[in-house]
């Protein structure tokens, strides 16, 4: 019965496409339908269950596929659902083959036939991938990739975008299969794909994470020590080894990130991994009593233990990553702050938002200066102090900007002078450091911006007499009088007073008939009312 309903649904759809076709051939935008349906029915938020609906044979395949993806999520905590997952994937592939067979009709155009072949190859590749039949899966994915690449080359750039996206989605699967077949170079490509994606999800995201962790674990087996600020310390904790091995890759991915959203996601991923590593080292510090005793002995001689120094190094990585992340966010907000606001109802960025970011940066720098094992490292302390001055200058600048918005000119001018004071200190101290400012914002740009803002503020009081030309010699002196202080009083409308003047002219009606006459009835009336009879 279901098959009959599918055929009844299929025929009108094909006839409708025939009417829209010039040569009478049938067409179906398979990949476009898939992508639109996925975005409209829950996959934007990873809700595969919402996507299980009925629509032609294609939608039957998508329904089975989406159910399989839902089961894949649930199989993380319920491994028994993996068998059901494979059954649904096989059913999706069977529907895909049915779709491909239907598209073999001479009434179907060449583009739709190719898309059906690519879609079937993709579903078959998914089945083989889950069965860990790497060679078969790779062949199916390569067939799918080849078809989509040919379709992309045959159409305009706008139409080819969708095909290129599908090729990018398939590429990690192909490289993963290649690695499992024996291609050791594939791991480098997979790590780059994973980092450039910003840690996002995907069909094989969990497998890819496990593979990268496994590869780093193998590399960590030969890693025994790390050097930082002239001191070499052994690294015996596996979690710390794996994190330090992947640190360079994570930092490279952040630098290569295409947009702020991806960069922010990478920063959060790096910070989360760093916190877990610090926690592992901290637990080792708590449990290793002998190590703590050696640390106490080393403190007397001015040198901390190796494990404590490793903890300080990891804490430095975390705190400096926080500084870089907030600096990146501040840079994006600065650009938005300079853009004109088109929608008055929408709240745009404000200087207060940047002040909060720089507060977090300064707090992190304060924690950096108090790291154990670096108290006597005068070079490190001077570098941190120099960086603190730079961010203090930027924080002070945006505090001044917030005063400008409420037209507190004098407070803003004082703060701008303080910004210049900080920048002069930075320039004088930076001469003794070669690379201390390479990762910091340019203070020279800040000086130029402050100078422009100062001139703008000094000219702000002149707006009261822009329409009148007056040659004032004092404006050319060293102490020009730009504004009169205190300003003159200006008349303002006062609150009106209301008086009831009509009361004396109102004649009230007589109320004699409403008022009871006193003394009426005498004592008899009194006793009548007392005993309840009478009136």
Summarize the structure in words:
- The chain is mainly α and 535 residues long.
- The protein has a domain at 28-39 and 52-182: Orthogonal Bundle (Hyaluronidase domain-like).
- The chain is built from 18 helices and two strands.
- It has a two-stranded antiparallel sheet.
- A hairpin with a 2-residue loop joins strand 1 and strand 2.
- The relative contact order is 0.03.
Mean pLDDT, rounded to whole units?
79
- Rg over CA atoms: 38 Å
**What topology, given as strand order, has the largest sheet?**
1-2
- The rough form would be described as extended
Content-based structural category: mainly alpha
**Poorly predicted tracts of residues:** 1-21
Number of strands: 2
- Count of helical stretches: 18
**Biggest beta sheet attributes:** 2 strands, antiparallel
Subcellular location: Cytoplasm; Endoplasmic reticulum; Nucleus, Nucleolus
Family: Belongs to the SRP68 family.
InterPro entries: SRP68, SRP68-RBD, SRP68_N_sf
Keywords: Cytoplasm, Endoplasmic reticulum, Nucleus, Ribonucleoprotein, RNA-binding, Signal recognition particle
């Amino acid at each position: 019965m279901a098959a009959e309903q599918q055929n009844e649904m299929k025929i009108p759809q094909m006839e409708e496409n025939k009417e829209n076709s010039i040569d009478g051939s049938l067409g179906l935008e398979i990949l476009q339908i898939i992508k639109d349906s996925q975005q409209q029915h829950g996959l934007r938020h990873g809700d595969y269950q919402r996507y299980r609906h009925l629509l032609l044979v294609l939608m039957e395949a998508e329904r089975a596929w989406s159910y399989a993806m839902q089961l894949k999520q649930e199989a993380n905590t319920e491994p028994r659902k993996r068998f059901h997952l494979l059954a649904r994937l096989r059913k999706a592939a069977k529907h895909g083959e049915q779709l491909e067979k239907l598209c073999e009709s001479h009434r179907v155009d060449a583009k739709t036939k190719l898309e059906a072949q690519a879609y079937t190859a993709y579903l078959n590749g998914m089945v083989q991938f889950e069965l860990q039949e790497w060679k078969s899966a790779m062949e199916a994915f390569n067939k799918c990739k080849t078809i989509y690449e040919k379709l992309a080359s045959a159409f305009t750039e706008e139409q080819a975008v969708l095909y290129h996206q599908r090729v990018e989605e398939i590429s990690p699967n192909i490289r993963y299969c290649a690695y499992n077949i024996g291609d050791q170079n594939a791991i480098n490509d997979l790590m780059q794909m994973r980092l450039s994606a910003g840690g996002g999800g995907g069909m094989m995201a969990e497998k890819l994470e496990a593979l990268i962790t496994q590869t780093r674990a193998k590399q960590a087996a030969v890693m025994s020590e790390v050097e930082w600020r002239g001191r070499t310390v052994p690294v015996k904790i596996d979690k710390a080894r794996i994190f330090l091995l992947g640190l360079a890759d994570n930092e490279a991915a952040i630098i290569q990130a295409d947009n702020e959203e991806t960069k922010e996601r990478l920063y959060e991923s790096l910070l989360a991994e760093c916190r877990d590593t610090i926690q592992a080292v901290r637990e080792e510090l708590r449990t290793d009593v002998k190590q703590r005793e050696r640390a106490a002995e080393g403190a007397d001689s001015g040198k901390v233990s190796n494990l404590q120094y490793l903890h300080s190094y990891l804490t430095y990585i975390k705190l400096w990553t926080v500084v870089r992340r907030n600096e990146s966010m501040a840079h994006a907000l600065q650009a938005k702050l300079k853009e004109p606001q088109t929608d008055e109802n929408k709240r745009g960025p404000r200087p207060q938002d940047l002040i909060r970011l720089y507060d977090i940066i300064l707090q992190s720098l304060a924690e950096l200066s108090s790291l154990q094992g670096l108290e006597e490292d005068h070079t490190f302390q001077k570098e941190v102090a120099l960086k603190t001055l730079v961010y203090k200058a930027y924080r002070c600048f945006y505090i001044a900007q917030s005063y400008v918005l409420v037209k507190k000119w004098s407070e803003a001018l004082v703060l701008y002078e303080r910004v210049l004071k900080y920048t002069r200190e930075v320039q004088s101290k930076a001469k003794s450091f070669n690379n201390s400012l390479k990762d910091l914002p340019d203070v020279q740009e800040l000086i130029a911006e402050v100078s422009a803002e100062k001139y703008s503020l000094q000219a702000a009081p002149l707006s009261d007499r822009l329409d009148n030309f007056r040659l004032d010699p004092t404006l050319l002196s060293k102490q020009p009088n730009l504004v009169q202080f205190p300003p003159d009083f200006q008349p303002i409308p006062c609150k009106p007073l209301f008086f009831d003047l009509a009361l004396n002219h109102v004649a009230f009606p007589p109320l004699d008939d409403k008022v009871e006459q006193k003394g009426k009835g005498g004592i008899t009336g009194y006793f009548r009312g007392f005993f309840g009879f009478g009136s």
